[in-house]
Design goal:
Helix content: 10-25%
Strand order of the largest sheet: 1-2-3
Order of helices and strands: EEEHEE
Number of helices: 1
Structural class: alpha+beta
Strand content: 15-25%
Number of strands: 5
Number of domains: 1
Radius of gyration: 15 Å
Shape: globular
């Protein structure tokens, strides 16, 4: 069975709240994009299946970009 969206914070293993624009927030204040949370969850389950212990990142840098006719420019937060 394919599971499309994680309902728990990958770091804290608690129920998350889905917000607009694909963001998720856990009760501990950890906020990130739902796709990143899901990707980290897939990675963590795979490493667990291989008996590899890993520390997940506490903070993930957010990158934003602006597409222009001539190039893509990074936007600094």
């Amino acid at each position: 069975m394919l599971r499309l969206a994680t309902k728990k914070c990958t770091l804290h293993k608690v129920e998350i709240v889905r917000e607009p624009r694909g963001l998720v927030t856990c009760p501990y204040g950890y906020t990130l994009h739902a796709d990143v949370n899901d990707g980290l969850g897939v990675m963590a389950r795979g490493l667990e299946a291989l008996s590899i212990e890993v520390q997940l990142p506490r903070q993930i840098g957010v990158l934003s970009f602006l597409a222009t006719p001539s190039r893509v420019k990074p936007i600094k937060p």
